[in-house]
Amino acid sequence: MILQSVSFLILGLLRFAVDASQLDDILIQGNDALMEGNNQQAVLLYRKGIEEMKRQKGVSLLTTISLYTNLATALSSEGDNEAAALSYQQALTAYEDQNDSVSDIETKEEAKEIASQSSFFLGMVYQDLSQPKEAIEAYAVTHDRFDPNHWASYANKGSVFHDNFSNHEKALEAYNQAYTLLVGGHATEPPSEPRYILSQLQYRIGLCLSAREDRRCALQNEDGTTEAADCQEQAAHAFSLALQYDPSNVSAKHMLASLTADATMKRASNTYVKSLFDDYAVNFEHSLVKDLGYTGYELLRKGFDRAMLNVGETKPMQLVIDAGCGTGLVGEQFRNISTVLVGVDLSAAILEQAQHTRPGLYDDTRVGDVIATFDEFANQISLIIAGDSYIYFGDLLPLKRRSIG
């Protein structure tokens, strides 16, 4: 959950660094190129400015950190995140080396704002480089060293704690800080339409609360005192708030229904499942098999073989539907007893991953709801296989009725 893009950085810096020198001309030309999307030209100009700066004495702090920071932005836009990280670091080093020698209050504040942006975007670059520890450190520097009201640094730090380290306590603390800043009206650079961000923050707060195994959380009262409360109830409240901010947040709706056993929601919405596995497609199988040691797909085939042995059935299945087929872990186990094997999944991304990982496994694949496939092949289906996808269906009886016509 990276909440801000690098697109606003150059806009924030154009008003800085106005020394009457050739460096200003180079900086402005680089800024113009970057604004026009000519990133390569911007990189050349900023590097030219930095080389010129090294030959001069007494270059202002604003010019120095603007050149390094905007160079980093251009490099990141070109996909060179390692070089971008180095340039952001150089901007921060220049700030620390020169800031104490600056006496003008307005200049110090402007330099601090640039440094804050540099640190924040350094965190984002570290996330792109899959360096979560360094990303957390950069975000912490942003709000601890430069700007305590920088809501996005708290939000992004929370996402790293949650997504990369499963540290729900630290993530919850960071998400709550971001949320408090936004609703309190003190946030730096608040979004123009905050309700979508507030919805996502409450959704993620709910995820952190619902992950608590002991189910006991501290609830803060209006007078500042705390009392014990059930984490699941607090999580449900967070998901409910997420839906109040954004009724279309299907992930929050699904989680709220799961926690409250909402009988009106018989199955997970297609939008929720599609969104979940589109995001998860590339890492799905590695996470499931390598990280979690999952073997359910093998156990499913063993159970099927025992059942068939008990009834004395040995002939191949004419039409097998792999419902919620994912990357084909289950389908692969049943290929040798399937005359025709059809894989069905809501996520086009994960079906592409299946075709890449196991080319030719399925005779046909369908992107969409399994119900449509059941209706299409009613009275023709010999076997339906489903690994863990059945947990998203709720009551299985209606699906069974559809599949047998």
Automatic annotation (TrEMBL):
Provide the leader sequence positions.
1-20
| This protein's name | Methyltransferase domain-containing protein
Write the record's keywords in alphabetical order, separated by commas.
Repeat, Signal, TPR repeat
Name the domain of life. Eukaryota
Q: Which organism does this record belong to? A: Fistulifera solaris (Oleaginous diatom)
User: Does this UniProt record's set of keywords contain Ribosomal protein?
Assistant: no
In its keyword annotation, does this UniProt entry include Repeat?
yes
**What PANTHER family does the database record attribute to this sequence?**
CELLULOSE SYNTHASE OPERON PROTEIN C, TPR REPEAT-CONTAINING PROTEIN MJ0263
